[in-house]
Amino acid sequence: METNFKILVLFYSFSGHTAELSKYIAEGAGEIEGAQVEIKQVPELIPNEFFESKPELKKIRESFANIPVAEISDLTSADGVAFGTPVHFGSFASQLKQFIDQLSPIFIKGTMVGKPAAFFCSAGSMHGGEEAALISTMIPLLNLGMIPIGVPYPVQGEGSDFDAGSPYGAVFVSGHKGDKVLSEGDIKIAKILGKRLSAMSKVIKYGCISFPECQFLSSKYE
Ligand SMILES: Cc1cc2nc3c(=O)[nH]c(=O)nc-3n(C[C@H](O)[C@H](O)[C@H](O)COP(=O)(O)O)c2cc1C
Prior knowledge:
By secondary structure, the protein is an alpha/beta fold. The protein has helices at 17-29, 48-52, 55-62, 72-76, 94-100, 104-109, 130-143, 184-210; strands at residues 5-11, 35-41, 80-88, 91-92, 116-123, 147-148, 170-173. The protein has one domain: Rossmann fold (3-Layer(aba) Sandwich), CATH 3.40.50. It contains eight helices and seven strands; from the N terminus they run βαβαααββααβαββα. The longest helix is centred in the C-terminal third of the chain and has 27 residues, at 184-210. The chain starts with a strand and ends in a 12-residue tail after the last helix.
């Protein structure tokens, strides 16, 4: 029996940290047999001129410019999606919101209903709004019928100071100057979240064959 399924790791990143975290989400997702994992970024909305006067930032952005830009079809064809964002003023980035806001036809068709979703973010400070950003990202995806996958205790809290991850998703604190690197705990949590997303996506896609009641999760309710 074929058991291939598709996981999309979709992110916006202004200065590279969320892009970096996405690699580990994808790595974890790839640990489940049959997973076909793709990393894509949503389109930038800030005009090019903004970056022209910021050579350092421009260079950083070139380091992840090779990651393809997503189209709506990448999202609709995926069996599970991880959404990543930097924390921008205590919430998730408008670039990701703009991408999601194109989904009203998808919402009406119910295409994303029953598909698992996971969330990850990067913030400058430990209390800069990570939880608010993760939960606010979750809200539109709940509207689309997706099933959120979190990071349950005791896995969250990995890291030397019991500081990695959160119940709501994977989190990386890049620091005031943005010069921190991912800790072992950050990487571990990101991989576990990706693997949980992948496992649940496979269960929902193929487990329903032998467990018909499960089809209730991903069918239109009439
Ligand atoms: C417009 C803007 C708003 C930000 N707002 C916050 C914030 O509310 N809280 C916080 O901790 N960091 C904030 N930051 C810092 C970023 O969240 C942080 O640098 C993050 O690691 C960037 O991820 P990225 O490299 O993927 O863009 C902000 C950065 C920008 C550019």
